[in-house]
Amino acid sequence: MFVAVYRMRLNPGHEDQYARDWHDATQVAIDLYGSGGSALFKADDGTWVAIARWPDRAARQRFFDRDIDPVVGARQAAAIAERLPTLELDCVDDLWVP
Fold first, then answer.
1. CATH 3.30.70.100 fits 2-90, yes or no
2. How many CA atoms lie within 13 A of 4 on its CB side?
């Protein structure tokens, strides 16, 4: 298993729409690209964090290589004030409960 941890700061007023778009994109990742799902969090420092599970890096890349709806892409770009470096993690021992 491969996990990606995405971190970002959102522009005020865009949080609810960003969360809806993230939810919809995650469902596409699950349904069409083999994702093991994702969870979205708001951290104490005000950043937003998404942790996504993938069977491997290739599955994640296929998801990111897809054609995205330009309206959704523009909304996401407007929502994100700062994108922090993504953490890419290879699983050593998985005790998460499905």
1. yes
2. 20
**What is the spatial distance between Cα 67 and Cα 69, in angstroms, rounded to a whole number?**
7
Tokens of 17: 């729409």
Q: List the domain boundaries for the chain.
A: 2-90
What are the start-end ranges of the H helices in the chain? 15-33, 57-65, 70-79
Please state the separation of Cα 59 from the chain's center in Å.
14
- 52-80 mean pLDDT: 94
Sheet of strand 80-90: strand arrangement: 37-42, 48-54, 2-10, 80-90
C-alpha torsion 63→67→68→73, nearest 10: 110
Cβ atoms 19, 40 nearer than 8 A: yes
pTM of the model: 0.90
Identify the bridge partners of residue 7 per DSSP, sorted by sequence position: 49, 84
Q: What is the mean pLDDT of residues 53-78?
A: 94
